[in-house]
Amino acid sequence: QVSELVQFLLVKDQKKIPIKRADMLKNVIREYRDAYSEIVNKAGKTLQEVFGLQLVEIDSKRHTYILINNLPRAEGRYLCRDEEKEKMGLLLIILSFIFMKGNSVKDSALWEFLHLLQVNPGKQHQVFGDVRKLVTEEFVKQKYLEIIPIPLTDPPESKYQWGPRAEKEISKKDVLNAVAKIQGKDPTFWASQYSEAEA
């Protein structure tokens, strides 16, 4: 059961979509329901030792889990498959923008910012494909981003902030150092972000 669960989690993680306890029970653990915790703990240990991945529960009410990369990483370089690298690059740019703007940005500000980078939500991008879909569906489903509707706005507006996977997987210190490098400034230049990143 343990090795089956490890494979199941690795396959599920390819899409970076959170894994529900119900799916683990239904597809893998089945009649060994009583040993659920033991099986999950052992699978978690195997993932950690063999793949450098950590099984983390991100929602204890709905019992959803994600795998996060635990291998030591070079500053600002995240371990991922080649075709994912560009997407992760875009994601890191978006997360940096959100962090530097005080941890939440209006959707209009985000699209404006991407527009400046020649990444237009309305157009098909040669690397990212449908950018709007990538940001509003894929990154949200993967729990890297969260979209929160802003009440009483007409037309309706929403804001973006870091999702639970980003909080667990990406260090704000790395993000701040990367931004500082790009801007040629010391990270302490941004006092509130600096104190948050060091916390």
Automatic annotation (TrEMBL):
Pfam families: MAGE. Residues 1-197 form the MAGE domain. One of its GO terms (cellular component) is nucleus. SMART domains: MAGE. This is NSE3 protein. It comes from Pycnonotus jocosus (Red-whiskered bulbul). The gene is Nsmce3.
